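lol forgot to send this yesterday, sorry. struct tokens for the thing we talked abt
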């Protein structure tokens, strides 16, 4: 089955992953996340990459960007290790929620 997902860039830390993705016009973010999480956790568990079964968290954050921001985002993703020396993932999430007026909804 053709997934029609172009993974432009990926990087992260031990507790989260950032991806830059292009998707087809007939797809939505929930479909993409279901595919990425499902297939990657299945692969990790089949290959026994971790001591226990791997599973993603239920939540995720997604945002769209314009073509003019692609290189800016790539550069941000390249510098994750350096970036998270001064700001934890949770601190970064909180900053985004305050800055953009997001509310975390669980369950």
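and heres what i got for the seq, position by position
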């Amino acid at each position: 089955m053709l997934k029609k997902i172009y993974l432009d860039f990926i990087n992260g830390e031990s507790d989260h992953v950032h991806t830059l993705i292009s998707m087809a016009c007939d797809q939505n973010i929930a479909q993409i996340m279901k595919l990425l999480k499902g297939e990657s956790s299945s692969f990790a568990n089949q290959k026994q990459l971790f001591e226990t079964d791997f599973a993603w968290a239920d939540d995720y954050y997604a945002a769209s960007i314009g073509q003019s921001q692609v290189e800016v985002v790539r550069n941000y993703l390249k510098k994750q290790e350096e970036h998270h020396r001064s700001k934890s993932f949770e601190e970064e999430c909180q900053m985004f929620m305050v800055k953009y007026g997001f509310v975390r909804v669980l369950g």
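The mean pLDDT is 87. anyway ping me if u want another try
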